[in-house]
Amino acid sequence: xxxxxxxxxxxxxxxxxxxxxxxxxxxxxxxxxxxxxxxxxxxxxxxxxxxxxxxxxxxxxxxxxxxxxxxxxxxxxxxxxxxxxxxxxxxxxxxxxxxxxxxxxxxxxxxxxxxxxxxxxxxxxxxxxxxxxxxxxxxxxxxxxxxxxxxxxxxxxxxxxxxxxxxxxxxxxxxxxxxxxxxxxxxxxxxxxxxxxxxxxxxxxxxxxxxxxxxxxxxxxxxxxxxxxxxxxxxxxxxxxxxxxxxxxxxxxxxxxxxxxxxxxxxxxxxxxxxxxxxxxxxxxxxxxxxxxxxxxxxxxxxxxxxxxxxxxxxxxxxxxxxxxxxxxxxxxxxxxxxxxxxxxxxxxxxxxxxxxxxxxxxxxxxxxxxxxxxxx
Length: 377
Known about the structure:
By secondary structure, this protein is an alpha+beta fold. Helices cover 30% and strands 30% of the residues. It has helices at residues 3-10, 47-59, 84-93, 99-112, 217-224, 232-247, 253-269, 281-290, 295-298, 301-309, 319-322; strands spanning 20-28, 34-41, 69-73, 119-130, 132-133, 139-140, 146-160, 165-168, 173-176, 181-183, 188-192, 194-196, 199-201, 204-209, 278-279, 317-318, 327-331, 336-340, 347-352, 355-360, 366-368, 371-373. Strand 1 and strand 2 form a beta hairpin. The chain is globular and about 80 Å long.
């Protein structure tokens, strides 16, 4: 799913657009016990409560693709009876009216989701009547021919409200505030099937994680059945390791700067693409070579890549996960320099009085601890 498709589904979680018919919930304590199980028609929920649920569902589709929102394609063997996709498809097709299937889903989550606190599993079913779109990108409900039939799961921590003082309006006094259990924003979730090319794709799903570094691979494998993806921080570390192993300990400042600039240029050249840019083995090889990594170092690229990614594997890395973005940092044990990524030309290395130095070009405006100082003596 791309950003536009995610936004389109996210827009359905408003009172005037909502087509959710059933909502199921399971409150789980820190010892993995089911404390409460609930099932209702969504439109029977009081309005104020409904708004809070809709906000949770929107949060479950919020974040950066590849970091918080992870597209997953089911392995073929998971689409036969007994597979994860087969199970989710049956759950979706039941419109959450099969209590045994819903309970089995809860059991799968509880057995594999790692959380030391209480949490609330929310599962909803909805059917979105997909409007047609004119050449001018204007929605036309009359041109609708397809329906997106889906389920969305949100897993929310349930925490005891903070202790404190509060005003008791009835007794007109300040006193110890009553503490109750509060449902927080979701930390995990999933959308099935995926919404790709503005239509249902039962071969894919979308996984949500609030923290990119906390993917919980075993939990993903339970829901998805395939090889868990590499987290955004792990992708960054893998890319750094490939570069470090290839260029060696004697990498020049200019080579590393070129790698940074060339990668940023690649991302900029593809910023209008529908799908996020990924870089595979040959893309990284070309990036290093074009950035000035010596040919003798590139001879070890294949081995270094396999050591970091795996033997005979080409694992595409999301460019936005491995790029430094709008920052360019130069660090020594005692000094840290941060430069706008489009002004890396301001920093260079020179040999001065026999010592390697970092030189920063400045104009007539320099601040030290917020105070303007003179640059010409």
